[in-house]
Design a protein that fits this description.
This protein is mainly alpha-helical and about 250 residues long. It has helices at about 1-25, 30-45, 50-80, 80-95, 105-110, 115-140, 140-150, 155-190, 200-210, 210-245. It is built from ten helices and no strands.
Amino acid sequence: MRSLRAAILIACVFAAWQLLFWYAGSNALTSPLDTMAYLGELLSSPRFYPHLIETAKAFAAALAIAISAGILIGFTLGLYRFAADVGEPVLVALYSIPKLTLYPIVLLAFGIGMPAKIAFGAIHGIMPIAIFALGAVRNLNPVYLKAARVMRLSPSRIAARVLLPAAIPEIFTGIRIGFSLTLIGTLLGEMFASQRGLGYLLIQAIGLHNVRMIMALTLLLVVIAVTASALLLAVDRRLRRNMLGTN
């Protein structure tokens, strides 16, 4: 049943896309079939894969940093009530800041190239993961922490053996959001200060008004993001079912 709903949704999206193409014309966008055909040409070209690999490397590094740093910040603040009360409004305020305003600082700190892309991607993903990790720790049953402290566990062992297993479902929700934002940040980093990557190809296509390239890259990124989001959502639901089952 879920597969049928997904197929109907995809069919509706492609139908709306085709209608929009007929209305706007080829100067604004390309048809679904033409876009998929051009994307096939890109994927069959050896010159395209260095750009794809460059983006994949930058995104993987940025996501790893965002997840580890976000969980560390959330757990550190969540373990102490005063720190959580002070830190949570700060995290929310930082999360609401348009990240493009920080890009000149990133360039000054990391220069042009892979480090800047990784840093800019990680900046986008850290905050939502940290906020969800902090919320997970604050909503944790206090009996768990009291028992861990009675057993005189160190803060690192409390985090690894108590907090992380109990907070994983909520943290995973933050990771789902952080995944998308990290991908956006990585692409933005490539658009403004890179000579390789999907973001670089996209900004180049925009400058040349290459509508076919713009649409093909957009379709590829949408497919990647939707597929990853669906997989993460499935894992998230299973984790929550397991937690309900154990309770």
